[in-house]
Structure formats: structure tokens, C-alpha cells
Amino acid sequence: MLNALVTLGAEPAGEAPPNPLFPAAYDIVWSLVCFIIIVVVVWRVALPRMAKLLDERSAAIEGNIAKADEAQRQAEAALEEYTAQLAEARKQAGEIREGATQDGRKIVAEAKETAAAEAARITASAHAQIEAERQSTLVQLRSEVGTLAVDLAGNVIGETLTDDARANAVVDRFLAELEASDKAAK
User: Fold this and answer.
1) Cβ contact 150:167 at 8 Å
2) Which residue in 91, 106, 140, 171 has the most C-beta neighbors within 10 A?
3) How far apart are CA 109 and CA 114, in angstroms?
4) What's residue 113's pLDDT?
5) Cβ-count burial of 161 within 10 angstroms (0-12 exposed, 13-18 middle, 19+ buried)?
6) What is the rounded distance in angstroms from the CA atom of residue 151 to the CA atom of residue 159?
7) Phi, psi of 25 (to 5 degrees)
């Protein structure tokens, strides 16, 4: 408090004490000069640089957007091409499957035909072999029956039948009569 009295006592008697809320005139003038210098520097230097920086950034953003749009169009074109190729590949796969199925059917049909032909050949060969064996057996049987018949006839008659031509004729006639009676019985 004493300090306040001392400072009040040191002031000239005719002047009013300065308002602490309102600065002095010289402070206002120098602050205004500094403010104008700062505004001019900002206006002349900082704003053009800021505008240039914003223009560059805007151009870069627009360029990136254009690149993104172009990339999007290329991606869509690639997708359409991929889809078309996929559809073509599926179509070709279906054709290949169908061709393989038809080839398989042809192979099976050819195999069946070959097997049927082979079976017919084997059957014909077996029939021919059976017929040959039958004929061979008949010839052998006729020979044995003929010999037996001649021997029996010789025993019944009491003479030996030595004439082969005559004996063969008798045997053939006997066998023919047997076959005729066999056919008539059937």
C-alpha cells in the first residue's frame, strides 16, 4: 500500500491517471504499423505461395482422380475380357467333354462289334471242329462196326469174308439202313 501512495505521489498534479484498459497512443500507432507490414507481407508473399501450393495440390488430386478413373475403366475392361474368356473356356470344355463322350461311345461300340465278330468266329471255328471230329468219329465207328460186322457175319456163316470190296459194300449197306431207321425214328 505504501508503494501505491508513493506512485500516486510521484505523478504530476494536472494529469489524469492512464486507463489500464486503454493503451497509450504511441503503442496503438506502432502496433498499427507492424500490423500493416505483416498484412502486406502475408498479402504479397504468403498468399501467392499458399495459392500456388493449393493449385498444385488440386491439380495433383485431379490427376490422381483421373488416374483412378482410368484404372477403374481398365479393371472393368479386364473383368469383361476375363468373363468372356471364362465363358469361352467353359464352352470349349463342354465341347471337349461332348467329343470325349462320343469317342467313348464309338470305342465301346467298336469293342462290342469286335467282340461279337470274335465270338462268331470262335463259335464257327468250334462248330467246324466239332463237325470234323464228328465226321472223324463216324468214319472210325464205321470202320470198327464194319470189322465187327464182318467178323460176326463170318462167325454166323462159318466162313471168313476176305473180299474187302464185298465186305465194305455189306458194311455200307448195313450202316445206311441203320441211319435210315434212325432218321425215321426221329
Assistant:
1) yes
2) 171
3) 9
4) 94
5) middle
6) 9
7) -65, -40
Beta-carbon count within 10 A of 92 CB? 10
**Residues constituting the chain:** 186
What pLDDT does 164 receive?
65
Phi, psi of 149 (to 5 degrees): -65, -40
The 3 state secondary structure assigned to the chain is CHHHHHHHHHCCCCCCCCCCCCCCHHHHHHHHHHHHHHHHHHHHHHHHHHHHHHHHHHHHHHHHHHHHHHHHHHHHHHHHHHHHHHHHHHHHHHHHHHHHHHHHHHHHHHHHHHHHHHHHHHHHHHHHHHHHHHHHHHHHHHHHHHHHHHHHHHHHHCCCCCCHHHHHHHHHHHHHHHHHHHHHHC
| 170 burial via Cβ count (<10 Å: 0-12, 13-18, 19+) | middle
Residue with cell 461332348: 98
Grid cell digits, residue 127: 462248330
Residue whose C-alpha cell is 463342354? 94
